[in-house]
Amino acid sequence: MNRYGTPLKRVRGLGSAQAGTEHFWGQRLSAVANLFLVTFLIYSVIQLAGEPLDVVRAYFRSPVVALLAALFAFSSAYHMRLGMQVIIEDYVHANTPKFILLILNTFFAAAVALTSVIAIIKLSLGA
Amino acid sequence: MGKAEAQPARPLSPHLTIFRPYINMMMSILHRITGAANYFGTLLLAAWLTATASGPDGFMAANAVTASPIGLIILFLYSWSLIHHGLGGIRHFIWDTGRGFELPTIRLMSWATLAGSVTITLIIWFIGLTKWGAFS
To answer: What confidence score (pLDDT) does residue B15 get?
Structure first.
């Protein structure tokens, strides 16, 4: 079927795939969230600078703090996974290393986010 | 298609080494570099949170690393990198609305990204170090 047609010839007339903008939209959506959440992160670091463990624990026991910290873990991981995906696609063209790096990219983002969230939950519950 | 060995070398479009560096080009490169740096910075955050949640020993160890000279330098660069990437993101949001594509505006916004990120980082560190007791 269509063995002699070019890829362009095959898709002409079919319209768009209706699914080309998720990357852009997700990237911008998480960027907006991160503007607020990084502000919260910087505020938190200043609040906790030089404080003993008791103060740090009390800070994370606030539900609002735990919620914002967990949101930041997910939003930043989502955003950076998309960003690193573009960097990999820009510079790595051979299929095997590209797909290995794209897979590792997702693994890294998921692992960092979940590690952070587990620690946040532990602190929030009084660890 | 197969291997294109019979084809002569195609001409390449001018790239980084051809153009004279412009501020918007430098800020574009820096946006990607700071983004990649922030990528690995999250590893530090995860490590600090995990150590702190593990108890007093982990918390002491994490703070010893953070308060060491190298730890403070890395934290300073990480904070600047986050802020610079954030301001660069705001620049891109302005461009997303279709505004700010005049050359003088592009140069102004690019310089403002750099000046703003350095200024905000220094102000935040002044506040943080004052609270930490570094000046008393």
So the answer is: 75
Distances (CA, A) of A107 to B22, B49, B89: 36, 19, 25
CA distance B23 to B19: 12
For chain A, say whether B40 makes contact (Cβ under 8 Å): no
Cross-chain residue pair A28–B93, CB shorter than 8 Å:
yes
Query: Right CATH number for A22-124 from 3.40.50.1970, 1.20.1300.10, 1.10.3720.10, 3.30.450.40?
Result: 1.20.1300.10
A25: pLDDT confidence band, cut at 50, 70 and 90?
Answer: very high
Answer whether A122 sits within 8 Å of B53, measured CB to CB: yes
How far is A40 from A25, CA to CA, in rounded Å?
A: 23
Q: Tell me: the pLDDT tens digits for B90-122?
A: 999 999 999 999 999 999 999 999 999 999 999
Does B127 sit within 8 Å of A28, measured CB to CB? no
**Is the CATH number 1.10.10.10 carried by domain B23-132?**
no
Contact criterion met (CB below 8 Å) for A123 and B52: yes
**How many angstroms away from the CA of A127 is the closest CA of chain B?**
6
Q: Is B16 on the interface with A (CB under 8 A)?
A: no
**Contact between B49 and A112 using a beta-carbon 8 Å cutoff:** no
Q: What would the pLDDT profile of B28-65 be if each residue is shown by its tens digit?
A: 999 999 999 999 999 999 999 999 999 999 999 999 99
